[in-house]
């Protein structure tokens, strides 16, 4: 099981604001911010359901190729809400909410490109 993961972002403050808005509908909040002085290399922010940050962003050169991160949620409504919030926060559509039966019959997901082109997804595997 993965404990946490991180991506690099080109504009730390803008990306931190984007993720605070985009991940709020799925229950993730900004849990921790560490300065470059604290980490010894770069500004870093961790998001997750408090108190545990599972998803981290760090100032730096964005990953090439961009990263794909999928957040599992427990309802299709949360997928819809994530998508709307991420688009409103400046993300770009990369697949509107809907069924993706080529993965499996109940795969309901939405995809948004973040400010650096990372493919961020919310997915629900439960039946409607």
Automatic annotation (TrEMBL):
Signal peptide: none
PANTHER family documented for this protein: GLYOXALASE FAMILY PROTEIN (AFU_ORTHOLOGUE AFUA_5G14830)
Residues covered by the VOC domain: 1-125
Protein's recorded name: VOC family protein
């Amino acid at each position: 099981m993965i404990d946490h993961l991180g991506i690099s972002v080109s504009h730390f403050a803008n990306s931190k604001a984007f993720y605070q808005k985009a991940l709020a509908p799925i229950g993730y909040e900004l849990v921790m911010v560490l300065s470059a002085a604290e980490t010894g290399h770069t500004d870093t922010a961790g998001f997750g359901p408090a108190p545990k940050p599972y998803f981290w962003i760090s100032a730096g050169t964005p990953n090439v190729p961009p990263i794909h991160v999928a957040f599992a949620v427990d309802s299709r409504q949360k997928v819809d809400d994530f998508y709307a919030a991420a688009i409103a926060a400046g993300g770009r559509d990369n697949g509107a909410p809907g069924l993706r039966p080529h993965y499996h019959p109940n795969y309901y997901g939405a995809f948004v490109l973040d400010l650096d082109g990372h493919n961020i997804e919310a997915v629900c595997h439960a039946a409607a």
